[in-house]
Amino acid sequence: MNAVALLEKYFPEMDAFLIILEHSRLVASKALQAARNLDHPGVDLIFLEEAALLHDIGVCRTAAPKFHCHGTEPYIRHGIIGREILDREGFPRHALVCERHIGVGLSVADIRAQRLPLPEEEMVPLSLEEKIVCFADLFYSKSPEKCGKEKTIDEIKTGLGKFGKQKVMIFEGWLKDFKFV
């Protein structure tokens, strides 16, 4: 699989492609660092890198003008859109990473409480690779003014804290699991 070529296919507008590519490369690098810290023989590093590169492919169909994306879907749906795209492309394992990478994952309770325009189903990372991509994604924004600047652990906790202590606790567990503390 050529993940970069697949991104290019879905982001024909060069500015959008470059924003997503830069963000995704940073996430992939952080994900590989987390996997190496973990030193777990079961982590599929090739899959992990591909999935990290493709985790935001669904942004292409969202109304996200600051990323040069002019679709019709709300941004929060980019995970499920990414799943649809990668399922159709024949990459069902990568597709699950797309669907489950938002924040530290979205539960049915989250979707209901926040009245999100998403199907009422669990979208939390289950596999180790899904958790690692989710974790790595938290460190980087796609916003052009912030892209390339790694968030601090405190900044991530503050952001997650807006959604409840449980979200912060999940992140803190990952920090320990992936040996970042």
Mean pLDDT: 94
CATH fold field value: Hypothetical protein af1432
Distance between the first and last residues' Cα: 34 Å
Give the % helix.
Answer: 55-70%
Query: Per the principal axes of the C-alpha atoms, what is the gross shape?
Result: globular
Assigned CATH class = Mainly Alpha
Helix vs. strand class: mainly alpha
Low-confidence stretches: none
Largest sheet: 2 strands, antiparallel
**SSE order in H/E notation?**
HHHEEHHHHHH
Strand order of the largest sheet: 1-2
The number of helices is 9
- Count structural domains: 1
Strand coverage percent = under 5%
What is the level-2 CATH architecture name?
Orthogonal Bundle
Extended strand count? 2
- Write down the Rg: 15 Å
Which helices and strands, and how do they pair?
Blueprint (H helix, E strand, L loop, with lengths): L2 H8 L3 H25 L6 H10 L8 E2 L4 E2 L7 H12 L2 H9 L7 H6 L14 H10 L15 H9 L3 H13 L4
Antiparallel strand pairs: 1-2
Give an overview of the whole structure:
The structure is a single chain. The protein is mainly α. It has a single domain, classed as Orthogonal Bundle (Hypothetical protein af1432). The protein is 56% helix and 2% strand. It has nine helices and two strands. The chain has a two-stranded antiparallel sheet. A hairpin with a 4-residue loop joins strand 1 and strand 2. Helix 1 runs parallel beside helix 3, helix 2 packs antiparallel against helix 3 and helix 4 runs antiparallel to helix 5. The N and C termini lie far apart (34 Å). The mean pLDDT is 94.
